């Protein structure tokens, strides 16, 4: 009988897998039974260290079978799990460890520096002391004797199961708090609850490539989906593309928009056989319709474009059969309402701010009641994204509610300007920022990534914007760039285009 408490459903999947491989790391192949044994040992080690419900565990781990088992074991003991992605700035890392962690779990890939004066530890790339959490070595936890009994999840439904930090693309990263009840409501591990688009995707994840950090919300949830579909997670770190796909015979992987653009360019210039590839899950930022069409043309019907937020999980997903320019049709279990400035729903086809409800959404931001009250409203999550639903029920995104340029005291959203620019055949991607202007207060500065081998005429781009959006939206300046600067999350970071502070 399936267990309701998370991660019981994942443990059931591992038990059902038995001798089937579920994780590959180089020459090492780990079966479902062996992974379940790792979970049992690590959970016993955590309990022996006094970790239980309500305790915060920071996970600073590489991409290994033990890392996956440690995440599941941390949930078995009912801890509040916070994954630490690689590359965090020192200040951000210290803040996170001080506030959110009772202990930090580290492995051989983690650098630990002990401050001789204070006796505290700086974990990761930090150079200063970190006060608070004690260190638990993953190797020690793995060496705990296997208790042999069936792991009993200790997380209570309303306990916070994990903290997942937003990318910080619109400000300081916030910790989204997801409860054990929310984790149990997620559909990744439950085939009976899969919407049609997820069922289609799951069938393509026989060899799902993992890299970067298993603590990534997207990386781990697609990994569980692959496991539930009878597939395996395959370590491909670093994810050099297309080489990693060929080398590991990868059938699916998560990919950012900049990385997709580079993969498409590489296949155009020097194509390799990607016959094994069945699914590219584009995540992290909107996919320009032109690049979407080009990717389908070059790579074939393998592009899935997901839309979601850290606060909500998946909201919708475009399949390879959906027309470029949309993010697909929200599943029946997801509610989407498009609201106007007065908060009232707007008609189909009219742009407004998206409010959503999903089965596994967060309950708020950890230790941030003010921001929680602004975003989590009467059971809805205010996405602060702008978009509309078309007559077929597909969702279209048009920009961020806070991403604006104020020209002559009139507010203009950056998203429509970027979409207009990216619709030109010579432009692959476009990014718009506001810059000070002595005459108008602010003006539009556009950064465009040209299509390979083409040079967009700036006057033609300005005329295109003027025709569609009016003179106030016409870029005062256009700069061509090879690719946008990226935040540590892998998303384009527009702040860096004008020398601003990077997102954390």
From TrEMBL:
Residues 417-491 form the AMP-binding enzyme C-terminal domain. Residues 483-504 are annotated as: Disordered. Residues 17-366 form the AMP-dependent synthetase/ligase domain. This is Class I adenylate-forming enzyme family protein.
